[in-house]
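Dynein axonemal intermediate chain 4, pasting as requested.
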Amino acid sequence: QEEGEAALTEAELEQRVEILLTETETLWMLDLPTALVSTEAEEAARVLERNKIYAEICKAKIDSEYFEEKMVQTISGAAKTKEVQCEKISMAEKGVVVTPWDLDNSLDASETKPAETEEPRAPAGEGRKSPTAEQHSQARARNIPSFCDSVSPITFAGSAAPARSHEDKELHSEAILTSASLQQDLVVMERILMENIFQPKLSLYRQIPVLKEPVVTSKPEVKTDEDDEDEEEEKEEEAPLPDANQSPAEGPWLELLWAFRCDLTSGHSVSSMAWNRVNPDLLAVGYSGEFVSQEHKKGLACCWSLKNPMWPERVFRCEHGVTAVDFSLGSPNLLAVGMADGSVAVYDVRSPRDAALLDSSASLNKHKGPVWQLRWVEQDRGTTAGDKKEKLICISGDGRMTQWFIQQRLDCFDVMKIKRTGSEKKKPPGERERKSEAPISQQAAGMCFDFHPEDADIFLAGTEEGHIYCCSCSGKEQILGTYRGHKGPVYTVAWNPSSTDTFLSCSADWSILLWHRDSHTPLLTFTSVTAFVQDIKWFPKSAFIFAAAKERRVEIWDLSVSIFQPVLSFAAIPEGNLSSLLFARNAEFLLLGDSCGQVGVWQLHDLAVPSTDQVWLCPEGLGSFL
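Structure tokens follow.
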């Protein structure tokens, strides 16, 4: 073959030939990644730390006989999916009837013969002998049930193993019932049930559409004239009877949605109510006891949630009746409670414990009379909720108004001491001034107070004498003015939130008075029925509307409509008396507490709310408008 090729000439040999060499595809037979890292690499510090930890682990295992140092390369196998099919598992129940003499014979056989042998049974054709009286007595002695005994767990005298297993089962079941996971699951289930029960009413309260159940259609039934008459009679029986003083077709009217009540609060009287400042679904209610058979009932402070109107979320049991409650704004989890014996306590509603976080038992300045009202008062109204500074103010039947400061314990100092004032009757001319008899106490019992909505240093204080004092927290002269108009104890005073120069007061003398700050005589007097006025509240959305609780009736007054008659007078409860009222924060709903221990949630229908701009049309506020 070489001979057949032509020889290259010299010119061809001198010719330049270019040869290009390329790399073929690399075939990897084994890939072992490097175990070395440069000291200048970014992960060098992390690798050195891991090596140090591994060296310490190896050093700790040198003395162990189960440790051997060698190189191992583990290869993870591929995951496989394997399906298995079997026949359908069927379950069946079987039962066996055992007579007392069968148990007696088997027990005798187990005691006389080895456990491996069995007592020979009678042939199929032979009948069994009935048990004798002696066998019955033996069976009873061994806890074996007979026909006349009730079925119970069988225990044998010769063995304690079944008894121990029964005790273990009881302990196991008790542990399940007291477990935290079960308690949490029960709370979730309770929430679901409450939502299903109260969903339509809660939707009305929250002003969201009501979910209606779908209508199940069925085959039309042929109705006769008798069926139509029966349906009309049923509708007439189910129709509610209208109130004698108020017709639903005329003006505003009230509708009861639900009531916060349970067996725990039954027999107590609702003394005060307060919404949580941050959570609008949380309501605190104070319950005071009553004197029954010369025994004083203990008080309660309950936190109710809209998610469960049938049982309170927190229950704080107090040794004495609760007379006042209020939530803090800076710390919404703190609930202040005033009691009938003059003590003050602060509870943490986040804690499930019943004990108070702080109380005034160790304070030397604690009240000697009932704490009729307490409130957290903001000091800096312009700050945010987290930075707000508050002071806890109380007024008591011992004639003192105190401010409490919270440290390791509760302690207070007097803001004001309310002194008794003599009557201002004019004496006839020429009559000598006779020395008046000294009163039993120089201090008048304080009943209520309210701070000015714009100025935190100005407040009103109502007394048992029927006088109202306008006071200042700063300055030499604490009392700025005295308002005399009531003939009985003043139960409530309330500044108008929109027209801040006017305020309302109610008393046991059956009257409600409207005052102006600059006038010491009342502008208007509201008296509709002869009944004690327990509580009054201004409507949050209007400066002209307020509500009053008068024994068994509740009244709604609209000053833009009439100053002589209320626009609504409704008998709220058939039994007991109304003791407290409170408006909802976000809707037109009214909460009424009574002496039977329940708080009813009522919806206000067809209440024409006047515009708040009408107040500003009057240069001197509500007093000039009237």
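Note for the archive: The chain has nine helices and 30 strands.
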